[in-house]
Amino acid sequence: MPLKAPASEPRSIVVIGGGVIGCSTAYFLTRHGLYNPKIHSVVILEASKIAGGSSGKAGGLLAKWATPKCLAPLSFKTHGELAKKHGGDKIWGHRSVYCADVALQAQDSNNEAAIANGVEAEHEASSPTKVPSDLDWLLPGSVKSYTEAGNPNNSGQVNPLAFTETLAQLAKEKGAEVIIGSATAINYRDKGSGISSVSYTQNGTSKTLNATDILLAAGPWTPKLFPTTNLGHPPRDHSVVVRPSRDLSPYILFSNISASENGSLSDLLSPEIYPRPGDKIHGFDTIYACGPDDYGVLLPDSTDAVAVDENRCNDVYTAVGSV
């Protein structure tokens, strides 16, 4: 469908939320065929920092087979196009991966000699299904079953923090603006005939930002500005990022970890495990791992006020270290 001539009416577009949805929207708006930076403004209004919430702390899985089915294939394709266009393999760690559901058994410190020897044959001997030979970074004896869920043709990954920060920067290069301030209200014209502005606070000062169009991309904070939106009680998740002793093959694992044979390691979490290549955040390989949802705290005012439970982070670290 051919684009019409560029719109002549000025537009002031405010994107509330500097997560991956908000920054992606700003990126594509500033590259739209009708966008004219002389008369169109695009502002990302973010309460704390770009990708300060889950957008900067998630695993970063890309999968054609994910849900919703109507969007996942398009998302997977678009990620590939963006990486090719902007060097995403180097900047935000975009790459193809394998994904698997794995049943693992914790290995205690008495297995240190076997761990040091690192005999790959033990993986095959301990599992009823064949384990790929290049998945050689799990402890010997730990793999009990391996079921492939995705392959490099339909699965990939990014570092979501590096990805989101880069999209925000690319949007700014085309004329978008990032304002750090907490949105407090959406203001309407008389009789609700349209949007007029957004009120926000910045360093304790109340301010107003004129707007003709607003996109709400504030995640679980959206109902505070648009109360009719019901998102329920949002969870909190804990994760860790560690540096491995060597580079790891690209296998994302959805684990189910059972206790060690002698019972010295039990009641372990079953984290998702993501080996990551070097990117602009870390110039070396890392391992990201995250634990289960936690509903034990109320939603704070902004992402930088989310309380971190060190014990839960340690639980994730202990579980990963056991396999």
Secondary structure topology:
Elements (H helix, E strand, L loop, with lengths): L10 E6 L3 H10 L10 E7 L14 E3 L8 H15 L1 H4 L3 E2 L1 E8 L6 H6 L3 H6 L16 E8 L4 E3 L2 H14 L3 E4 L1 E7 L6 E8 L2 E6 L2 E4 L5 H4 L13 E4 L8 E8 L13 E5 L9 E5 L19 H12 L2
Parallel strand pairs: 1-2, 1-12, 2-8, 5-14
Antiparallel strand pairs: 3-7, 4-7, 5-6, 9-10, 10-11, 13-16, 14-15, 15-16
Helix pairs in contact: 1-6
Q: What do these coordinates show?
A:
The protein is an alpha/beta fold. Helix content is 22%, strand content 27%. It contains eight helices and 16 strands. It has helices spanning 20-29, 72-86, 88-91, 112-117, 121-126, 160-173, 222-225, 310-321, and strands at residues 11-16, 40-46, 61-63, 95-96, 98-105, 143-150, 155-157, 177-180, 182-188, 195-202, 205-210, 213-216, 239-242, 251-258, 272-276, 286-290. The strands form four sheets. It has a six-stranded mixed β-sheet. Residues 112-127 have low confidence and may be disordered.
